[in-house]
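#struct-pred
JK: can someone run the complex with 5-phospho-D-arabinohydroxamic acid? inputs below
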Amino acid sequence: MNLKKEDYPVTVLYDFDLGEFSPKERSVARKVSDLSPMFHDKAATEALIKQGDPLVYEIFYYGFKTSLSDMALGTTRIQPGKVGDEYYMTKGHFHAAENQPEIYFCVKGQGNLLMQTIEGEFLAERWKVGTISHIPPMWAHRVVNTGNEPLVFVASYHLSAGHNYGPIEEKGFRKLLVERNGKPEFVLNEQWK
Ligand code: PAN
Ligand code: ZN
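RT: done, structure tokens with the ligand placed:
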């Protein structure tokens, strides 16, 4: 076996206080403007963008690509906050490859994992630290931070799974997670038909 540099094992360290891996690899930051099609209250979205366009979440990821595999590790840190009455959340996506699952592991904070098929079957899992969810192929997935601190989760997936954001950008998930009387509550998403 002729080993290349990328075929050697890699070990990383997760910092529980920061909610980050070290060494950090690539990172992506998403602000309110990056999620403007997603939040239901368009006026609140515009107002927040004008007030400085706050950070909603960051993704740090390791490709771990070798000559034979592409198992990736990502960590997502969602800030606490709301746009209008709707909690900060990830954009949400289907995988471009239809046979690709994913594992999510909640390591900080609390919230919900929303999942949905293209036909509109909807499921939500309540998350606390330690919750591990398996997302089967063909289910779109989004995480919502309903707490007062950052929500951090670790994701394990194949890079070749890819992302398909289209259907979620267009009409979202069937239900929105909004604050009612200081508590998270699901309401029907009027945009979903
Ligand atoms: C995750 C997500 C990450 C950010 O790594 O990509 O949590 O969410 P969005 O991609 O929906 O903005 C994953 O599910 N990868 O497949
Ligand atoms: Zn995914």
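RT: quick notes.
The radius of gyration is 17 Å.
The first helix runs from residue 42 to 50.
JK: thanks, will look after standup
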